[in-house]
Design goal:
By secondary structure, this protein is an all-beta fold. Helices cover 0% and strands 48% of the residues.
């Protein structure tokens, strides 16, 4: 029931410390009969200089009384408060080829770039690793020449190497126009959250 009621929402504040004003309803509702009929979730907004927004999001559709695999859609708004309109009746990544979630996008001189979690490892070579893709318009995406954006295997400051159970919801911090740090929600263990004893938010400095 909780999963079936997942929607993309919006909250606004003048400061990260609040107070926050929550929108009265979802900014991206589900659409009966479409690829996003079951849920909309995991929004990845790219706010342009003119204030408009390209929003990449995760979706599932109803298959009987249950849901199908995860798919990725694209929506657009002239202002971050909306209204948002879905740009395509089909997912922007062909679901028979791309089983991904947790997208993050940013604008480049020639279009957009995206990182996302590879659910099976068929795209980047590592299960739950990150893919790296590009698009000229936010609708037609293709893997980059080096498709592995990040790995669940990390090296700590003391030289210890560890393969994390999860590395979720990747976000990049940009400083002076360049990505400098990768943020992610992670866990220990070997089977995702199933056998994790600890979870935390991690910041990974990027090599220049």
């Amino acid at each position: 029931m909780a999963r079936a009621n997942k929607r993309v929402g919006l909250a606004i504040a003048d400061s990260v410390f609040g107070p926050w004003r929550r929108a009265d309803g979802p900014i991206l509702p589900t659409r009966p009969g479409r690829f996003d009929s079951f849920l909309t979730s995991n929004p990845a907004p790219c706010v342009h200089e003119d204030g408009s927004v390209l929003l990449i999001y995760k979706a599932r559709r109803y298959e009987g009384n249950l849901h199908g695999d995860m798919m990725i859609g694209a929506a657009y708004a002239d202002h971050y408060e909306g209204p948002y309109r879905v740009l395509s009746d089909d997912p922007v990544f062909p679901p028979e080829m791309y089983h991904i979630e947790d997208p993050f996008i940013w604008k480049t001189a020639d279009g957009y770039r995206l990182i996302a979690k590879d659910m099976e490892g068929r795209l980047c070579g590592e299960k739950y690793g990150g893919i790296y893709a590009g698009s000229p318009d936010g609708l037609k995406w293709s893997l980059q020449e080096r498709p592995l954006a990040y790995s669940r295997t990390v090296r700590w400051d003391d030289g210890t190497v560890q393969t994390l159970g999860n590395l979720e919801r990747p976000f990049l911090l940009f400083q002076n126009g360049k990505p400098t740090h990768l943020f992610a929600a992670v866990s220990d263990g070997t089977d995702g959250f199933m056998d994790a004893s600890d979870t935390w938010n991690m910041v990974i400095p990027l090599k220049q």
